Amino acid sequence: MTNTIANIDKEEDYFLNLGPQHPSTHGVLRLLVNLRGEVVKDLKPYCGYIHRGIEKMCERNTYPQIIHLTDRLDYLSAHQNNEAVCLLVEKALGVEVSDRVKYIRTIMSELSRIASHLLWWSAFGMDLGALTTFFYGLRDREHILDIFEETTGGRLLQSYNCPGGVMYDIHPNFQKRVKECLVHLKKKLPEYDKLLTGNVIFKNRAIGVGLLSKEDAISFGVTGPSGRGSGFSCDIRKLEPYSAYDKVQFDEIIRTECDSMARYKNRIDEFYQSMSIIEQLIDNIPDGDYQTKMKPIIKLPEGQYYQRVESSRGEFGVFVESRGEKNPYRIKFRSPNLANLSALDHMVRGQKIADLIAIMGSLDLVIPDIDR
Amino acid sequence: MTNEELKQRIAQLCADAVCTDTQDYVLAEIPANSLFAVAKQLQEQPDTQFDYLYSLTGVDYNPELGVVYHLESTTLHHKITLVAKTADRENARLDSVCELWKTAELQEREVYDLLGITFNNHPDMRRLLLDEEWHGHPLRKDYSNPQLIVDLIK
Q1: ipTM
Q2: Do B54 and A315 touch (CB under 8 A)?
Q3: What are the extents of the domains in chain A?
Q4: DSSP notation for A40-56
Q5: Could you report the per-residue pLDDT of A246-288, keeping only the tens digit for each?
Q6: Distance of residue A347 Cα from the nearest chain B Cα, in angstroms
Q7: CATH code at B90?
Q8: Regarding beta strands A314-322 and A303-311, do their DSSP bridges make them parallel or antiparallel, or are they unpaired?
Q9: B97 touches chain A (CB under 8 A)
Q10: CA of B41 vs chain A CAs: smallest distance (Å)
Q11: Structural domain count of chain B
Q12: Residue A113's pLDDT is what?
């Protein structure tokens, strides 16, 4: 008995299971955290709680069917994921889509990015104890989801792209509503800055926390706004322009502070870049077919193909090994979130347990994309 | 470096390598035992500088098992893809590239999980997505799930 009491005062390491049902993981991810007092010594991620074997399922599906499964990877970048598969099929078959399709795809991708970043902003504030952000962010995100619903029929998972174009033409109200939505967002985004960006508590929890050097970001493959917060120039829209990104002017947002605040500000700036891209395109959508006629059964020639796009969270890639069949021999989705998660252990060592939540929030992980 | 120069460089580094062109990049098949040495050279040499492993994929080429490494240089902006294959399906082993690119750690665990390739010198060789007690490796072409729901109902 005396021994037990004596041990309480002794400094010892202990383990804490964070998740799989923890609100801050935004999904079913388990982190086994090794702690000494409040300080994190290291952590091990345990994935697979929402593993659905999507790559295995894709091996028996045809290419148009695969598109519907890619929605379910990173459900907040559903449109960009669809686009990656469509671009890959079109590239392999040498199909050229009309300018109208390119414009529509680019606008939809950027709307998805804004919607995704709005949800991230909401949840990030909530992770740090500011519940108001959640209501503000979701309120404004509704406007974009309504636009998606009107044209595509889906709010979260649109499955709007198909090989050769898009499923249906845009709704007659589309342009009007997008422009209204941008006016609304421009009014609301400065409020976000007032509410969270300048807040002293928020600043203290974000500035200088969760450092990730540029070399480590590249080595871990951390891409997207998180990687660009470490000075890693990795915007696929600039490096390998696809769809209509070569026709628009926009900046790649790069910061070199390497902390949570840099990642936060990158996403806030991306709101404005995305809106600028949409504004450049929305009035100039050219006439033309919204779909190029494809063969009823799509077979890719034998060989290897790789297509990358910039999803809301980083570089999303599709790798296909084809044997000339109507379904892929092997398909792999390069998940931006898995790479971002791999850097978490490195970033939180020596930080406080409360900062772990803030750092994870700044990485913006979506778990179904990790587990696939 | 252009694709032709990259092919020459690969031939210098490893005489047995076979290079082919695909639509997107040069594909170099490297013998499994010299993969790590070639990858290390490609990362370190100042005119190649492949510092970014953007994807690592396990493929069952049936009968061989292979791993595809997609590499890019963030400074010089050229790309190359390496493939290493092993014919031993029972005890498939390849060298880990964790030392060179840290992102490989989780991705190699995924390959081990789904295709059953064990990586030498990997710091933590466990399954990533499936349960520790899972039998077999689902992305192998000869995989059959012993516990299909149909069988359980019988």
Answers
A1: 0.86
A2: yes
A3: 53-371
A4: EEEEEEE--TT---HHH
A5: 889 888 889 888 888 999 999 999 989 999 999 999 888 888 8
A6: 13
A7: 3.30.460.80
A8: antiparallel
A9: no
A10: 16
A11: 1
A12: 92
